[in-house]
Design a protein that fits this description.
Elements (H helix, E strand, L loop, with lengths): L1 H6 L7 H13 L4 E5 L2 H11 L7 E5 L4 H9 L3 E5 L21 E4 L11 H11 L2 E5 L7 E3 L5 E3 L6 E5 L12 E5 L2 H10 L23 H11 L2 H19 L5 E2 L7 E2 L5 E5 L7 H10 L5 E2 L8 H4 L10 H9 E4 L7 H15 L1
Parallel strand pairs: 2-3, 2-4, 4-5, 5-8
Antiparallel strand pairs: 1-9, 6-7, 6-11, 8-9, 10-12, 12-14, 13-14
Helix pairs in contact: 2-7, 3-4, 3-6, 8-12
Length: about 350
């Protein structure tokens, strides 16, 4: 960071941007990285790069951040939803085939809270129907998926395009920031133009398309480069915290904890849990009890099909997704930051036990 400031290159040009892009792309097993201003911008630029037409459809989970639907709507396309898988809370891949129509153009798998989507059947289905796969790996820095061949690959290395967020609560952060990674030379060139107002390297102020101002600064990239140097340490610590919580909360009646499927290496970006209805509590009630004990929590996502802003656009009327609805009402996540100590994990677990007593 000091070197960046002293160089004078603190805005959207400078060597740290290229270092961060190439380093993160290589970490994900990709050829190209295109840094942008945030994770939402990454999704919007990636969707725009696919050249979807109005009315084209993109299949995604209902249980995700609203940015996923907003990026699709921004180009006039239509988000089509599937429910969650009840154990991993990621999209239920088995439901995708029934949602494919002649207008379907892409599938957007979203890795939830650090656990990968089951990608093999999704990729097979996409290939069979000629659909683009736009992977949202914003919550899965360093998470891995094992394909049927036995090969472990990092999330962010699948499909045509993969998107990341480097928001403050992510494993690697630039404060605000994001990136799209891809192996496709043409998509990478288009993304670099789109993030920078549609400028072209051969003629800067001549615009064939209207782009965005989605540039990341060199100062932010310098912060990312420094963290990338210790990414293995960061991932290891997140997994340690996940293991500590699992060990100490695993025997408490009335809780459902995150799973790690045999084909997944989760990074436990957030340690979520579900409180069983038999306790007489929902997530809001449990969060209130924990707040009384000075433990801050966050609620789970509310499904896209229950978002008032999307209802006002005429979307998802009457649609029901029971798994996503249940986990939205019964789920919360506990303190999960990298600064969390083992002693603080113990304190949180004690408060959870007391809150359920």
């Amino acid at each position: 960071m000091t070197e960046c400031v002293e160089s004078g290159w603190i805005s959207s040009s400078g060597r740290f941007i290229a270092e961060f892009e190439s380093g993160w792309a290589a970490y994900c097993g990709r050829r190209h990285g295109i840094a942008v201003s945030n994770g939402t911008a990454a999704l919007q630029a990636a969707v725009a790069a696919l050249d979807l037409e109005p009315g084209d459809e993109v299949i995604m989970p209902t249980f995700t951040i609203v940015s996923c639907a907003a990026a699709v709507l921004a180009v006039g396309a239509v988000p089509v939803l599937v429910d969650s898988e009840p154990e991993t809370w990621t999209m239920d891949v088995a439901q995708i085939s029934s949602r494919i129509t002649p207008r379907t153009r892409a599938i957007m798998p979203v890795h939830i809270y650090g656990h990968p989507v089951d990608l093999d059947p999704l990729l097979e289905l996409a290939g069979r129907h000629g659909l683009a796969v736009l992977e949202d790996a914003a919550e899965a820095h360093g998470a891995e998926y094992r394909s049927g061949s036995g090969e472990w690959r990092r999330c962010g290395g699948f499909g045509a395009l993969s998107c990341f967020s480097f928001y403050a609560n992510k494993l690697v952060t630039t404060g605000e920031g994001g990136m799209v990674v891809t192996d496709d030379d043409a998509l990478a060139e288009r993304l670099r133009s789109l993030r920078n107002l549609g400028f072209r390297p051969e003629r800067r102020f001549h615009h064939e398309v209207l782009g965005f101002n989605f540039r990341l600064t060199n100062l932010q990239a310098a912060l990312g480069v420094a963290q990338l140097e210790r990414i293995e340490e960061i991932v290891a610590r997140k997994r340690e915290v996940g293991a500590l919580y699992t060990e100490r909360l695993g025997e408490i009646d009335g809780l459902t904890l995150p799973v790690e499927k045999p084909w997944a290496r989760s990074v436990f970006w957030m340690f979520g849990l579900l409180v069983d209805e038999a306790t007489g509590l929902d997530a809001t009630a449990l969060a209130g009890r924990l707040a009384e004990r000075e433990i801050e929590t966050r609620p789970f996502f509310l499904g896209m099909h229950e978002q008032p802003a999307l209802h006002r656009l005429g979307l998802f009327s009457g649609e029901r997704y029971p798994v996503a609805e249940r986990i939205a009402r019964q789920g919360l996540y506990l303190p999960s930051g990298l600064a969390l100590t083992d002693e603080q994990v113990e304190t949180v677990c004690a408060a959870v036990r007391e809150s359920l007593a």
